[in-house]
Amino acid sequence: MKAIQITLDEALLERLDAHPTVKEQGRSAVLREAAAAYLARKDAEDIAHRYRAGYGDAAGVDAELEGWADEGAWPED
């Protein structure tokens, strides 16, 4: 692990230090968890954005495939 220096406003630091999890696990552990959760959320948002950009409006796909739903046939036993 590498030690870093960050700046927090005093009110936020007081709230952080007052939290039971911080008292139990320590600031560093809680901030590591928060950073990991932030990155996971941003990664998920990025994937969703790329998905929307790649596939666009699903209504266009539905219109293109209209009428084909009944074309398949299941083998009969």
Summarize the SSE layout with pairings.
Layout: H1 10-18, H2 20-25, H3 27-55, H4 58-65
Architecture overview:
It contains 4 helices and no strands. The protein has a domain at 10-55. The protein has helices at residues 10-18, 20-25, 27-55, 58-65. The chain is mainly alpha-helical and 77 residues long. The longest helix has 29 residues, at 27-55.
Low-confidence stretches: none
Order of helices and strands: HHHH
Largest sheet: none
Q: From the helix content, strand content and strand pairing, which structural class follows?
A: mainly alpha
Number of strand elements: 0
**Helical content band:** 55-70%
- Give me the oligomer status: single chain
Query: Counting H and I runs of at least 4 residues, what is the number of helices?
Result: 4
Distance between the termini: 63 Å
Average pLDDT: 87
**Shape label:** elongated
Strand proportion, as a percent range, falls in: under 5%
C-alpha Rg (nearest Å): 25 Å
Task: Give a concise summary.
The protein is mostly helical and 77 residues long. The protein has helices spanning 10-18, 20-25, 27-55, 58-65.
Essential attributes:
mainly alpha
